[in-house]
Amino acid sequence: MLQGRAEEIRAVEALLADARTGTSGVLVLRGEPGLGKSALLEYAAQAADGVTVLRGAGVETEVELPFAALHLLLRPALDRLDTLPEPQAVALRGAFGLAPLGQTDKFLVGLATLSLLAELAENRPLLAVVDDAQWFDQASASALLFAARRLHSEGVALLIAARDDQAAFPTSGLPELRLGGLVRDDAELLLNDGLPAHLREQVLAEAGGNPLALIELSKAAGAGELELAGPLPLTDRLLDAFAGQIQRMPDPTRKMLAVAAAEDTGALGIVLAASGTLTIPADALEPAELAGLAKVTGGVLRFRHPLLRSAAYHSISSAQRRAIHQALAGAVSDDRRAWHLALAATGPDEEIAGALEQSAERAGARLGYAAMATAYERSAQLSADPGQLARRLAAAALAAKEAGQGRRAADLSERAAHQTTDPVTLARLSDVRAAVAYDEGSPRGAARFLVDGATHVAEADPRTAARMLMAAAHNIWAAGDPALAAEASRLLDRLGLPADDSLVSLTRGVALVYGGDLESGYPMVDGFLRQASTSGVPAQMMAANLTFICGRLDQAVELTTAIAAGCRAEGRIRLLPFALNHLAYTQVVIGHHRDARDNGEEGLQLALDTGQPHAATGLRGQLAWLAAVEGDEERCRPLAESALAFAVSHNAPAVALLPIWALAMLDLTQGRDQAALDRLQARPAGSSHFGTRFVVDEVEAAVRLGTPDRVRESMELAERWTDLSGEDWANALIARCHGLLRDSEADFARALDLHKLAPQPYEQARTRLAYGEWLRRRRRKAEARPHLREAHEAFERLNARPWADRAAAELRAAGEVTPTRRRVDPGAALTAQELQVVRLAATGATNRDIAAHLLLSPRTIGQHLYKAFPKLGISSRTELARLDLDRL
């Protein structure tokens, strides 16, 4: 039994018990060095009867080798790679350098990790123990955490030990257990029996209940090797204690231990080869083994504790360390050779810089973008030529951006910009900084960088400048910055491109629409959209944005569906949250609320997992609006307020539109018409498709308050946009507004006719409700009842509870005492994920196919089906054919 760790042991045993019942779980053990994290991992491995055990650990000197830690963990399972879906197997082989890797998404390696862990747990539970996770290379950490957040029903127990530094291994959202120091009674049991009483008290005070410190400091103090007085941090105390043990070794032994500490793999052959170069005798390791400082197992030399490794490395002079790295460079090849040479360098060296650049490119080819950035950055530091230095810093910035290290990418870009005057390089750097600013939710910053970049490259490459100004237009609108819009327009004029150039026309059209000149800008955007190529996900993403500007809902549905499917098929996991954001918004507009919620929730989780706050904010706004429509204030308000706070803190007015709309909808459904109107009229100004969507709620609130004049300006703008678009759905909404404002039955009737041409179940129900209320108020109750009844049934199907209640109250007032209630839909009991799984299963897709599509494991898919079938009243996949799944 581990001393004083009863609570922690219970947590570990509960994790194992869950795995044995087929339930997966994750537990992260946090704490400073020496608190017993490794001992708890060992206890778990020993207690794992009937469970397959997989072990891995981070190595301090491997933090710049992409996927090194993940390879160490999964190496025993690589013979199962052929069981994975082909894209995942290719991604994992490429990441581990086992095969060439084409263009793919780094998060696909995380999905492959999940699938491989699930495969290992297919026949018996699996315990994966990971030690020293704070030293995982960034690529490995990203992949493992992506997999960890998707473990559900595979029978996998993942136990991770890491030091307190969250930045080194960020586990936000995963269960954590922080280890504290032992209480005094338990601490005293670990002290050296022969320690004098006065030293016992000093050690107890210095150790603070840290088990390793209690053991090592008492040994060192008893031997007279350690002075305990003074304010040194505990880790430094332990390093001193370990240093004392190393100093007792013969000089050749100390040097060989330093060689072993500098070698990342611990391979004995490499350590001996480098030691031979330094004339260290081969038997120099023996005293260290006898003293228990290190041991050799399976040809690998391992230190008793990572801090002992650090003590060995720092116990020699910097000159000796450089000599060791030089010797190690002669014993290894490729990336390790390049890094050892870099650590041995004392100044600029173009040969070493070139070797590191090659290492960077190899890392990038394996999706190790963080390692790529580090290698390029170090390569830049070793560059003798200023031009090479700037180029390599720029490459480091691009790699850091791909790694999701936004701040680092921005810093590297700024440093590179100070080292070059090349306009093309400066434009590329501006692109990187703009992308970082956008990801962080600062459209104003993104627009500023894009306009600056376009300025740099305007003469050398005017089309690139036009492309950057096109991207800037969206950000300028989101930021609400007319001065920057004017600057971008003047620059576009100076590019000298033909006025009818498609890119120039589109850029100008987007800027004009967002600036309020609809009549001039809309035809330019619409003309481009009608001729635009939509081959490939990037082109589809741009076209989807344009369909929203132009209100082309049919085209938006087609494009956003294709984008999400393309992202899944091509493994573009990092882009998938944006694709799901577009798709969910389209489904909100056309009234497919449940699908919108399912896609929104999946997209939000992915955005959080992949570190994309901007995408998360948009998805929160949509989910908040759906919650408001359903009358779920408890869910709506936190989502909307979180999104709104993000928009305000990042000075992004347009980003605030959706959460403002959501809160206004909540007010409207709760009868707070004044609050709803005030919110909607305080929204950021400007023309967009949002205006037509919002104006219907604005008009309803104003009419109910008896203040229709307050919406005159909003209506005029919405009418101009609708006239230009000619879309039936938009004309239906405007007609309903006219019915309310003009008290006009003809306009209500026209709205209902137009809804038939462009079905929108939610909006159509709102129109029927408004018309039914209008008829009832004129005592035409018999005519009102059919409209109110259909509205009530539609709201019931949509789970729009406040609206259904309002329609029911109107029906009662119209003389229908008991509104007809919709038959309970068996699909209503399904969770969002169960519904997705059932719909995919109905197409004939296997569990493995569905798992790859939804970024889950096959076992989790099976569990979802197991739970879904009884809710649907069926018992097998074949019975899915008789269900109307489109209505679920």
Automatic annotation (TrEMBL):
- GO MF term set: ATP binding
User: Which UniProt keyword terms apply here?
Assistant: ATP-binding, Nucleotide-binding
User: Does the record carry ATP-binding as a key word?
Assistant: yes
Start and end residues of each HTH luxR-type domain: 823-888
Q: Which InterPro entries match?
A: AAA_16, P-loop_NTPase, Sig_transdc_resp-reg_C-effctor, TPR-like_helical_dom_sf, Tscrpt_reg_LuxR_C, WH-like_DNA-bd_sf
Query: Sorted alphabetically, which Gene3D superfamilies does this protein's record hold?
Result: Winged helix-like DNA-binding domain superfamily/Winged helix DNA-binding domain
Q: One short Pfam family name for this protein?
A: AAA_16
Query: What is the official name of this protein in its record?
Result: ATP-binding protein
Q: Organism source for this protein?
A: Hamadaea flava
